[in-house]
From TrEMBL:
Residues 1-21 form the signal peptide. It comes from the Bacteria. The keyword Signal applies. It holds the Pfam family Spond_N. Residues 165-184 are annotated as: Disordered. It comes from Psychromonas arctica. Gene3D superfamilies: F-spondin domain. Keywords: Signal. This is Spondin domain-containing protein. Residues 62-166 form the Spondin domain. NCBIfam families: NF038123_dom (NF038123). InterPro entries: Spondin_N, Spondin_N_sf.
Length: 230
């Protein structure tokens, strides 16, 4: 089944700069300004539960790139909703936070993520549960010019991780509509991240599909509003 886990906010230590003059007793300690962001996420689909969104703050790097192979951490997320490897293996992560559970169709979740110093970017990923390896997210949202109390709003689309063939079968789709395996390390698809072609379903003639028209979706699949609160 999709893993909906609660991830505690992780923050790095405060950055401290000590400048010394000619006199050793003269020193200045500069502490960077802490930042905090409140992120409102809404599931816009009709029948796709979205796994607990994992949000990260970072200054470099990116979680995925269209046209390039998915990392093993992203593969696990896209096939099962499990974000643990992204947390463990993302070297450029400064801080992170997650929703306490998945977001069902039409519902919202609010996640607060913070850091002890200014940051450049916010990214997030979530799986579309009634799919083989569909995911959504935002990659490198620029926060550098966002002032306190200002907001940014985005609509997110569905991506295909390219790591598992879109059979939509009861054995391979982990969401509640099928109840299949959570993930499989064997990559049997094109092995690059692309835009997701959508759910075909048994109703439209895919004989392997355990899904119906109710699990179909159009873009966008989520609405995301980021507000700087500190």
């Amino acid at each position: 089944m999709i893993k909906f886990s609660k991830v505690a906010i992780a923050t790095a230590a405060a950055l401290t700069l000590v400048a010394c003059g000619d006199n050793d007793s003269d020193s200045v300690t500069i502490i960077d300004t802490p930042v905090e962001y409140e992120v409102l996420l809404k599931n816009l689909t009709n029948g796709q539960p979205i796994s607990a969104p994992l949000l990260i703050l970072h200054d470099t790097g990116e979680l995925f790139e269209v046209g390039e192979p998915a990392s093993e951490a992203l593969e696990l997320l896209a096939e099962s909703g499990d974000a643990s490897r992204i947390l463990d293996e993302t070297s450029f992560l400064l801080s992170s936070a997650s929703a306490t559970g998945g977001i069902v169709y039409g519902e919202t979740a609010t996640v607060t993520v913070s850091h002890t110093a200014q940051v450049n970017y916010l990214s997030f990923t979530s799986m579309l549960g009634n799919s083989n390896d569909a995911f959504t997210g935002l990659n490198k949202v620029d926060l550098s010019e966002l002032a306190v109390n200002d907001s940014l709003t985005f609509s997110t689309v569905a991506y295909d991780a390219g790591t598992e063939a879109n059979t939509e079968s009861a054995e391979t789709v982990p969401g509640p509509a099928a109840g299949g395996e959570a993930s499989n390390p064997i990559r049997d698809d094109i092995n690059i991240v692309t835009m997701h072609p959508g759910i075909v379903s048994a109703d439209d003639g895919l004989t392997t599909s355990a899904l119906t028209y109710q699990q179909k979706f159009d873009n966008p699949v989520m609405s995301v509003t980021i507000t700087r609160t500190r």
